[in-house]
Design goal:
The complex is a heterotrimer of chains A (about 400), B (about 300) and C (about 300). Chain B is of the alpha/beta class and about 300 residues long. Helix content of chain B is about 40%, strand content about 15%. A 7-stranded mixed β-sheet of chain C has the order 2-3-1-4-5-6-7, covered by helices on one side. A two-stranded antiparallel ribbon of chain C has the order 8-9. The relative contact order of chain C is 0.12. Classes of the chains: A alpha/beta (about 400), B alpha/beta (about 300), C alpha/beta (about 300). The complex binds thiamine diphosphate, iron/sulfur cluster (2 copies) and magnesium ion. Magnesium ion binds near residues 131 and 133 of chain B.
């Protein structure tokens, strides 16, 4: 059934379709509507779950982790300060290998306090052991929440997963979304039956034990291997979903007009969407530009990015966050994946910080800069602050 | 007839081999509570002594499922566990959080208050050893006046804790939950009865249990129980319960012994001056008076509204 | 460079002793480090501490595996842990015990030194705290530091922690122990020390997510209820002696034992009479049972 809905609605609806057993969530702009929609679904009797109206995000993540460790399918959602408050418990979720799914509406993490799109909330959590997906429209929000459970609960993976969507640009914007029918969702996503972690008096086990050095390093290896292994599962789930519902997202990355492209811009989130239009315009002018939508930062699509680099003359990475003293986090990731694999110029474009709009002209600038780099074979400027007053771009 | 020592089963659901200090009061409390709760129980422990002495991977003293996530979230995690069990068709399984005084009176208070307000169907046990023992004896909001801890040392100028013990049970009572009780390692009959009562009720149930700690309180290991008795006999610890807010003191010392008789058994109070002891005695007298009046008031309140 | 391993029990002050030795060596112009085995053991459990001394700056940050000297603060540990593990040939073991060195069979090609440090401590300090006396014994047996330096080390570490007056007393205890320490060549062990096997699964065998599941392993049972594999009886200094004739089967000791190692058993072939049995594999010797018994049927003995 197609309806015009917000990204927040799409996320809440998908959670309902995933038949999550337990939801524990706390409101924060711009994620609030996810909590409110779930409250409505529950109170209207169309969503059958235990909904815990906790007093904080710390408790939201705690209750979610414990519900999942008990053996239930668990869901929560947050943004910004809320995610930061969860930080401690995020590591428990991955350490215990709990397939929790959590939409994160990416918003500025204070200070300065702001409520608009920025990715400095999720970037510090790259090491928390969560699969990190980034989406560009509301359909993808809906589809990825459902896919997330398939990926996370796969026995080869068993890791929690965040679905990152840009504040307001998706969370509060309505657009047509094909909302899944219950039968279809059930066909795609069977119920969760954990074998590794559950709390059942009939088969007692300890989950969360004080552990000496003899064992922790092996556990870390297992989790790292699972994260690496999730790449294959992400692709399989993408393909199966495409077969069943006709929507193919390309797996770890999606390439747009990359055949014969001379330069590639790597994007995360909604800027991808705007960039598609820019690519079309520049292509019409005869400029050989292409776009790579990075859909996952964890696991990092190392092979895919190396393959892109081998086909173009310059690469640029768009970032909506800054790691002070280095550059954008997505750039840091790409550059480390490419080390020793390419000699082409690599540059970083920062734009849209604090929710500032990223204009078509901004993206055009990035592509033109990349074309110059491609021509000279040199990086004109490594870190380019787009539209920043008093800073030459 | 309510449960007594001789009704307890022989089997330990919290087994020997655990690594609590010799003479640990908390170990006595936990081991016996588990005998009342039985096998259909799931446990949460935050960071505290019990977490560490109850298991070191791959060995576990618990025979029932047991879970730990962090320090400040006992009530939130127990809630998540209970709600999950409900969705898995195991509504009859009892969920219990065993937290220390630090994990309850201090860092865990927010999640605790919220779960109490929501009347979550869990049992929350605060074993009160009156300091952060796991990290090496630092003061908590539950540490009594005058007590030495490593963060309230007996210094040249300031000797011991200058502030008074926080009354956590009364805070929880103010949440209007079905069951609040205090108990003590030194009063088996009283404690077992309360645990059994809590087990057979629904909704949020809270027990604050006095658990002597020879290591942190600096007393010989063999007087763990004697000290607990003196705490009650001196009025330092009030044994009460409140079913649906109706408060009743469950053990009233015939004549309260001087607080000094309690203090002198423990190294943590050794440095206290006469003045400090007088201040503490004064506090105990007032507290006892308040607890007695409170009991009366809450009973009367109930009669007038029934 | 020389390396020292201290064996003690939680609460006996092994770490302070290791630190005081470091301070002593430092006072003689050396570079010295001391550190605990980073564990989470409670009071009474076997613990380790280490001191490493060299004439130049020490860069090595590992624990000590092949000590030159071993210090044992409590001879009941000799049965529980292999105190000579990794000890270099010609190394010295310093033991707090009433026994003579010839009476201990800890291995060949080593030197064994003994002192009744507990006796010394009781005499001089009035308390059985042996972590200072044993340092005097160490100085005498090894010659690795002087007695003067040991006193400086004790004044520094003990003085700062528990006050100068008590530190001075501790120096006197160390001095007395120095004078009473005797050494002998080590005798071969009667039988090899049996080391408990450890379960060390590789990344494929280790259950994921750190879950504690019930399993039988090369090192015995693991998972729920498996702490029974951990025999805490070795922590004990005092032993409960039971006179079941006096037992009235009130079950108070059974209730109050923190370990749950007391069971109610039929007694005197009489089905109406019950007594208690104590599982000494787990009894930590806290004495609560004896203290709470209304008929004094239990007595604590050393
Ligand atoms: C967020 C956080 N802060 C600090 C700690 C360190 N910590 C672990 S246990 C503990 C004290 C526990 O005290 P209490 O709850 O009274 O239990 P006890 O150890 O006394 O039994 C502290 C401070 C922690 N684990 N997590
Ligand atoms: S420190 Fe106290 S509470 Fe902790 S294990 Fe030791 S005796 Fe028990
Ligand atoms: S001394 Fe008694 S109470 Fe203490 S551990 Fe041994 S048997 Fe149990
Ligand atoms: Mg405590």
């Amino acid at each position: 059934m197609k309806r015009v809905v917000t990204g927040n609605y799409a996320a809440a609806f998908a959670a309902m379709r995933a038949r999550v057993n337990v939801v524990a969530a706390f409101p924060i702009t711009p994620q609030t509507f996810i909590v409110e929609h779930i409250s409505e679904f529950v109170n209207d009797g169309i969503m059958d779950c235990e909904f815990i109206r906790v007093e904080s995000e710390h408790s939201a993540m705690s209750a979610t982790v414990s519900a999942s460790a008990t053996g239930a399918r668990a869901f929560t959602a947050t943004a910004s300060q809320g995610l930061a408050l969860m930080h401690e418990i995020l590591f428990t979720a991955s350490g215990m290998r709990l397939p929790i799914v959590m939409p994160v509406v990416n918003r500025t993490l204070a200070a300065p306090i702001g409520i608009w799109a920025e990715m400095n909330d999720v970037m510090p959590e790259r090491d928390a052991g969560w699969i990190l997906a980034f989406v560009e429209d509301n359909q993808e929000v809906h589809d990825m929440v459902l896919q997330a459970y398939r990926i996370a609960e796969d026995n080869r993976v068993l890791l929690p997963m965040m679905v990152n969507l840009d504040a307001f640009i998706l969370s509060h914007t309505v657009e047509p979304v094909d909302l899944m029918e219950p039968e279809d969702a059930d066909r795609f996503l069977p119920s969760y039956k954990p074998e590794h972690a559950y709390l059942d008096p009939e088969r007692p086990m300890g989950v969360g034990i004080f552990t000496p050095p003899e064992y922790i390093q092996e556990e870390r290896y297992q989790t790292h291997a699972a994260m690496e292994g999730s790449k294959q599962v992400i692709k399989e789930v993408n393909d199966e979903f495409a077969k069943m519902f006709g929507r193919d997202y390309g797996g770890l990355v999606e390439e747009y007009r990359m055949d014969d492209a001379e330069v590639a811009l790597l994007t995360l989130g909604t800027v991808t969407s705007t960039a598609r239009e820019v690519v079309d315009n520049l292509r019409a002018e005869g400029k050989k530009v292409g776009l790579v939508k990075v859909r996952f930062l964890r696991p990092y699509p190392t092979d895919e990015i190396r393959s892109v680099a081998s086909r173009v003359k310059a690469i640029g990475i768009y970032d909506r966050a800054i790691s002070y003293g280095v550059g954008g986090p997505a750039y840091i990731e790409a550059r480390s994946a490419l080390y020793g694999h390419t000699d082409i110029p690599i540059s970083n474009y920062l734009a849209g910080i604090g929710g500032r709009d990223v204009m078509l002209s901004d993206i055009e600038f990035m592509f033109n800069d990349l074309l110059k780099n491609a021509e000279s074979g040199k990086v004109r400027k490594e870190l380019v602050w787009i539209n920043t007053r008093g800073v030459e771009q | 007839m309510s449960i007594g020592i001789k009704d307890l089963p022989e089997e330990n659901l919290f087994t020997a081999g655990h690594t609590a200090c010799a003479g640990c009061g908390a170990a006595i409390v936990v081991r016996n509570i588990m005998k009342v709760l039985g096998e259909n129980t799931v446990i949460y422990t935050p960071a505290n002594c019990l977490l560490v002495f109850g298991a070191t991977y791959p060995h576990i003293a618990w025979k029932v499922p047991y879970h730990h996530v962090a320090f400040e979230n006992t009530a939130a995690c127990a809630t998540g566990m209970k709600r999950a069990l409900n969705t898995l068709g195991k509504e009859d399984t009892t969920v219990v959080g065993f937290a220390g005084d630090g994990g309850t009176a201090d860092i865990g208070m927010q999640a605790l208050s919220a779960a109490a307000e929501r009347n979550e169907d869990i049992i929350y046990v605060m074993y009160d050893n009156e300091a952060y023992m796991n990290t090496g004896i630092q003061r908590s909001g539950s540490t009594p006046y005058g007590a030495w801890t490593t963060t309230t040392p007996a210094g040249k100028v300031i000797k011991g804790k200058e502030l008074f013990k926080k009354d956590v049970a009364q805070i929880i009572l103010a949440h209007n939950v079905p069951y609040v009780a205090t108990a003590s390692v030194g009063y088996p009959q009283d404690m077992l009865k309360k645990v059994e009562k809590a087990k057979n009720m629904k909704g949020f149930r809270f027990l604050q249990i006095y658990s002597s700690c020879p290591t942190g309180w600096r007393h010989p290991t063999d007087i763990t129980v004697e000290i607990a008795n003196k705490a009650v006999e001196s009025g330092m610890w009030t044994l009460f319960e409140a079913v649906d807010g109706r408060m009743e003191i469950t053990h009233r010392p015939k004549e309260r012994i001087p607080v000094q008789d309690y203090l002198k058994l423990q190294g943590r109070f050794r440095h206290m001056s006469e003045e400090q002891i007088r201040i503490l005695q004064n506090w105990v007298d007032k507290k006892w008076d308040r607890d007695s009046r409170l009991e009366k008031a809450l009973k009367m309140l109930d009669e007038s509204t029934d | 460079m020389f390396e020292v391993r201290f064996h003690g029990r939680g609460g006996q002050g092994a770490v302070m002793a290791a630190q005081a030795l470091a301070s002593a060596a430092f006072s003689e112009g050396n570079y010295a480090v001391a550190f605990p085995y980073f564990g989470a053991e409670r009071r009474g459990a076997p613990v380790l501490a280490f001191t490493r001394v060299d004439s130049k700056k020490i860069y090595r940050k590992t624990q000590v595996y092949e000590p030159d000297f071993v210090v044992v603060l409590d001879d009941s540990l000799l049965e529980m842990v292999d105190v000579t593990e990794g000890l270099k040939d010609g190394g010295v073991v310093v033991v707090n015990t009433r026994k003579k060195p010839e009476e201990l069979a800890l291995g060949e090609n080593i030197k064994v030194a003994t002192v009744d440090a507990t006796g010394v401590a009781l005499e001089v300090l009035g308390q059985p705290i042996t972590n200072s006396s044993i340092l005097g014994a160490f100085a005498k047996a090894t010659g690795a530091v002087s007695m003067d330096a040991i006193e400086k080390g004790i004044m520094d570490i003990f003085g700062n922690k528990i006050g100068m007056k008590i530190a001075e007393k501790n120096c006197r205890a160390a001095k007395a122990a120095y004078d009473r320490t005797i050494s002998a060549d080590g005798r071969p062990r009667e039988k090899e020390f049996e080391k408990k096997p450890k379960w060390l699964p590789d990344v494929k065998e280790l259950p994921i997510g750190g879950a504690g599941v019930k399993m039988e392993t090369n090192a015995g049972m693991i998972g729920p209820g498996s702490f029974l594999e951990n025999k805490t009886g070795g922590w004990r200094t005092f032993m409960p002696i039971v006179e079941n004739d006096k037992c009235v089967a009130c079950q108070l000791c059974w209730y109050f034992c923190p370990e749950g190692c007391i069971t109610m058993v039929p007694y005197d072939n009489n089905r109406f009479k019950k007594g208690i049995a104590i599982d000494l594999d787990y009894c930590k010797g806290c004495g609560i049972c004896a203290h709470e018994c209304p008929t004094h049927a239990i007595e604590m003995k050393r």
